[in-house]
Amino acid sequence: MTDELRKNVTRWAIFATVAVVVVVSLRAKGVSDFKATPVVMKVYDAIESLPDGSPLLISSDFDPGSEAELEPMMRAILVQCWRKKLRVVVMSICSVNSPPLAARILKESAAAHGAVYGTDYVQFGYQAGGTAPILALGQDWFAVYPKDENGTPSREIPAMKGITKLTDFPLCLEIAAVTTVEYWLLAGNAKYGLRLALGVTAVMATDNYQYLATGQVVGIIGGIAGASQYESLTRRDDLKTARETRKDGGLASSRMPTQSAIHVAIILLIVIGNILYFVGRKKAKA
Amino acid sequence: MGHLKRTVPLAIAFIFGFGLIIQYFVPHPVSQRALGMTQRWVTIVGFVSLLLGIGSLFQSHWRKINAQVPGWGYSVVTLGVFLLTVAAGFHPKNDKPGGPLLWAFNNTYSPMSATMFSLLGFFIASAAFRAFRARSLEASLLLVTAVIVMLGQVPLGAHIPGASSFSAWILGVPLTAAKRALTLGIALGAIATALRIIFGIERSYLGGRE
Predict the structure, then answer these.
(1) Is the ipTM of this complex over 0.85?
(2) Which residues in chain A (193-212) have CB-CB distances under 8 A to chain B?
(3) E strand spans, chain A
(4) Contact B113 A33 (CB under 8 A)
(5) What is the pTM assigned to this prediction?
(6) What is the C-alpha separation between A205 and B175, in angstroms, rounded?
(7) How many Cα atoms sit within 13 Å of A27 on the Cβ side?
(8) What is the pLDDT confidence band of residue A129, given thresholds at 50, 70 and 90?
(9) Burial of A43 by CB count in 10 Å (0-12 exposed, 13-18 middle, 19+ buried)?
(10) Which residue of B has its CA nearest to A128?
């Protein structure tokens, strides 16, 4: 067997292994039970400590590529918001692809929990310019967003009562798959002292641990694992239903077994790769 | 022409760069209004740069179609879909539920984007198999750490004594220390570069020669 052929066979064997593991674990329809870590609990506690009816800003900065990780996370957080009757204000600084996703998630979650647009939540569109819109929101919300996504004047929306600028929000939750986290840290937190909590993809979570120790963010929900932990806090009934009916239910906890299986498969592949490496080295020496 | 190409951009960079640094420390209403105005300019410039991007996209793909370079068919698809999307934007329902723009987003962009991202799982598995080899002490340390952190991120880790707590320690202490050092280094580098641009020492952003 030539080197090139061996490489190709190995690559296809790995791809086939991953495909089989994904399909089998999805077919098993398991629902994981993940206890929330202290880092995730901090986000939950920060939202829980807000008085009922408080405004909560959510910056929805992800697109379909990271939807699988961040959609269940946003849904789990929204359940807590609806229970506490928080006024959820959603905006985007990531891309024009974020608002349609957020709109769908908001609409479905609100409908399931009886939340009403305009009173319990409101959505504003995408703003370009990185830190510029955040800095401008810190001065005058209505100059940046004179109208909501539906064209209603922002000042007339009940959910916006008492809000004139960024610092009127006691907490901002940045749900992100891109570098917008840094914009919120630089402009929102450093400039205006806005309290920030993060919900980010798994690969981004490690980048942002440094801001926990400095107190710049109150907590981090990282990836599908973090979302699953948050569901264990806010969607216990849905988890029970998913276990009983063996239906996915769009829950992160239903996706977690697949991720766990893939992680184990990757670890096994690394072990096999190392065994082959040492066997090859031994043969070469001989 | 030389003044317009070099002196004027350098002067603009100096005035706005230096002016906005001073503005940051001045809470006076005049200073705040000036900040608000420049922020609106940034947003407008951002959208204008989008137009430039569209122009560049058209130019690049049109050239490929004209010259019929290998793969020029993809350029036809790119421009065709672009024009269709623009046309959908002029539809009265636009991006409202049932409108063509939202339909296209939900039924084409969204699944294609998710598909592209999910391919990453296959490539990561293949890359991990090839790259994580215990070739040296450093590589072995990286390998062991990666495995422990990976286990700490899944429910399975909870059944392995110490895996979760050790994973949390790696993330909270060595990772944070290393990331903080990197972030501070990058920030200092960014400040130095910004000062070089403001004072006209760094001129590569003007294009061409120094």
Answers:
(1) no
(2) 202, 206-207, 209-210, 212
(3) 55-61, 87-92, 121-126, 172-176, 196-200, 220-222
(4) no
(5) 0.85
(6) 11
(7) 6
(8) confident
(9) buried
(10) B43
